[in-house]
Amino acid sequence: MPTVADVARVAGVGAITVSRFVNGTSYVSAAKKKKIQAAIDKLGYRPNQAARILKGHRAKVIGLILPDLADPFFGKCASAIESYASAHGYMTLIVASKHDRNISNNEVSMLIGQRVAGLIVVPSLSNDSLTEFLHEGIPIVALDRPLSGIAADEVVVENLGGAQTAVEHLIGHGHKRIVCVGYDKESHAVSHRILGYTNAMQSAGLKPELRLSIQSYEDALKLAKQWSKSPDRPSAIFTLNNVATRHMLEALREVNLQIPEKIALVAFDDLELAKLLSPALTVVRQPAVGLGAQAARVLFERIAAPKNQESEFGIKLVLPVEFIIRNSCGCTGIPAA
Fold it and tell me: Per the database record, which ranges form the HTH lacI-type domain (predicted)?
């Protein structure tokens, strides 16, 4: 197995210079970096992470805490983060809190024990355990929603405005009774989407109607059955995320409530096959890949920054969303985008 000395010999530099390059502990000229990287590639050298950790260095690993691995949106974010980290020579350790406090606390302890260099987290529970990262000097970036009470960087999307635009579109179709369907109302992202829905309804003089316990197909089916038997059912639905959307689509099909003939639907977040559905789904599209990539960029800037140059206050990036009009809202003749 090649060693630091072997890399130094092939690159024509000193072993200390190779160590500095591998550990990122001090300045190495661009010319020497190029020679060292070429030698590493030629020899297939891999730094001994265990030895680095024993010497007090951070592992070349970042942590990523998601609330739910089953949500395709977070899957896209994670893929973008992993790709960015890999391009910078880091691995990504991905865990899911599953909205469980004990699981989350155990994951935080594990990541700290692994001496990760930084953390990207989608907050879903109390932030108390995350303060341990700050005490250890490990940078944190909040993804999709902010970390309350912690001065961490955050990368989010325009949830409120996107939701308001979607509901205003349904109102423009003449819908008076539009129901907001989903779950996780305590989260920052979902609460802002609910606020956007409520703003649009109240501005039009309409009464908001919330159904915020739809977390499973069974929940959605129960609601759809109630509507199918009622002559006073809503004429449109606004779903808060793609998990709720998927459940509602399946439930509405089961009770034969055709979209948009019997009930229109607009969703927050785009599904992978949304444009191939019949009818194609009108959505608020989030830049999932861009969100993950921007979160990773901010984190690696923090990791690379000298300690005395780190900002005490977190930065906030708000990425725009895109309203994609297809056919489930009632529009016709719209090519699926």
Answer: 2-56
Q: Is residue 329 part of a domain?
A: no
Closest C-alpha to 243, from 64, 68, 76, 103: 68
For residue 70, which of 282, 244, 268, 321 has the smallest C-alpha distance?
244
Q: Which two tokens stand for residue 148?
A: 């309350």
Sign of CA dihedral 160, 161, 164, 170: negative
The span from the first CA to the last CA of the chain, in angstroms, equals 51
One pLDDT digit (tens) per residue for the chain, 337 residues = 777 788 889 999 887 788 778 766 567 888 988 998 898 888 888 765 544 544 445 678 999 999 888 788 899 999 999 999 999 989 999 988 877 777 777 777 778 777 888 999 988 766 666 777 777 788 899 999 888 777 789 999 999 999 999 999 999 999 999 999 999 888 888 999 999 999 999 999 999 999 999 999 999 999 999 999 998 899 999 999 988 999 999 999 999 999 999 999 999 998 878 888 889 999 999 999 999 999 999 999 998 886 655 555 578 999 999 999 999 999 986 665 6
On whether residue 300 sits in a domain, the answer given is yes
Residue 290: Cβ within 10 Å count? 17
Category of 34 on φ-ψ map: left (φ > 0), alpha (ψ -120 to 50) or beta = alpha
DSSP 8-state symbol, 24: T
Is residue 137 domain-shared with residue 183, that is, in the same domain? no
CATH for 275: 3.40.50.2300
Phi, psi torsion values for 303, nearest 5 degrees: -60, -40
**For residues 96 and 80, what is the distance between their CA atoms, to the nearest angstrom?**
17
- Structural domains counted in the chain: 3
Q: Which residue, among 292, 284, 271, has the nearest Cα to 144 in the 3D structure?
A: 292
- 137 in a domain, yes or no? yes
Burial classification of residue 183, based on how many CB atoms lie within 10 Å of its CB (0-12 exposed, 13-18 middle, 19 or more buried): buried
Domain that holds residue 264: 159-286
